[in-house]
Amino acid sequence: MKRIVLSFIAILAVSIGSFAQLWITQNSGLAETRGIIYMCAVDANVVWAAAYDGTVPTNPCQDFTKTTDGGTTWTGGTITGATGLCIANLSAIDANTCWAMCYYPAGTGTLDGVYKTSNGGTTWARQTTATFSNANSFPDCIYFWDANTGWALGDPINGDFEIYTTTNGGTTWTPVPGSQIPNPVSGEFGVVGYFSVVGNTVWFGTNKSRVYKSIDQGHNWTVSSVPGWTNIYMKPCFKDANTGIVQDRKSVV
Questions:
Q1: First vs last Cα of the chain: how many Å apart?
Q2: CA atoms within 13 A on the CB side of 8
Q3: What is the structure's pLDDT at 20?
Q4: What are the DSSP calls for 185-221, one per residue?
Q5: Fewer Cβ close by (within 10 Å): the C or N end of the chain?
Q6: Can you give the pTM of this predicted structure?
């Protein structure tokens, strides 16, 4: 089972003087039954956010919301063509272009994987070369450095994590060979949205207290374990190439 960490409200911090901050609640533009599970800030004005079903969090939900004025107004929408899916995370480069990693919350199907919009979220199209087509495929994370260069992660298939990279905006996704990815341990999988990026370096956490790391935008990987922790869902958060923390819901190191 993949853990989903739920965030319940979107708020904006505005500096007041040198020592104080005022947090302002903003209307998300979503239905009252929706919550925010992931946010992607492109700059001070453009932010995309993925929603979840706040009534039954495990229900499918393809809703998202977006602001282009720093949060003064938010406009909700739905990822088209993704019926039955949930959004793992979003990766946007501007107000028009965004990718969504989508997965089936229960069971399997043929529509999960990477979706892209180039018109601000009005329509979306599934990028089929990141196939996630095995019966056991489960998409976890996606990230784009720019309009062309991206990385996508899924759970292990046939002994290797299902990882793809692209250099043309996802028109073509290329599988990363298993020889370039350390083998998972028994029962290991990725966690929805549990990754961190600094420059060209990307980390993702697993349910076995391990963190995978690539310094070349997802092409080659190493792995390390967190001392003293076993079978804990790792969420890495890095501020630079060397300094970071890992956490689960109850602990932080």
A1: 23
A2: 2
A3: 53
A4: PTT--EEEEEEEEETTEEEEEETTSEEEEESSTTSS-
A5: N
A6: 0.91
- Three-class DSSP category at 66: strand
Tell whether the torsion through CA atoms of 185, 190, 191 and 194 is positive or negative.
positive
Give yes or no for residue 124 having a pLDDT over 90. Answer: yes
User: Tokens 């800030």 identify what position?
Assistant: 41
189-198 pLDDT per residue, tens: 999 999 999 9
Supply the mean pLDDT for the chain.
90
Q: Are strands 20-25 and 98-103 parallel, antiparallel or unpaired?
A: unpaired
Of 89, 28, 86, 83, which Cα lies nearest the Cα of 57?
86
Provide the token pair at 65.
């919301």
DSSP 135-191: TT--EEEEEESSSS-EEEEEEEETTEEEEEEESSTTSS-EEPPGGGSPPPPTT--EE
Per-residue pLDDT reduced to its tens digit, 55-66: 999 999 999 999
* Token digits of residue 235: 């969420």
Q: Is the pLDDT of residue 15 over 90?
A: no
CB atoms within 10 A of CB 185: 14
Give the residue among 104, 97, 99, 93 at the shortest CA–CA distance from 114. Answer: 99
- Residue 26 above 70 pLDDT? yes
Beta-carbon count within 10 A of 131 CB: 17
According to DSSP, the β-strands at 34-41 and 20-25 are unpaired
Summary count for the chain: helices (H), strands (E): 0, 20
The alpha carbon of 71 is separated from its chain's Cα centroid by a whole number of angstroms, namely: 21
Please, are residues 10 and 71 in contact by the beta-carbon 8 Å criterion?
yes
Amino acid at 12: L
Is pLDDT of 9 > 50? no
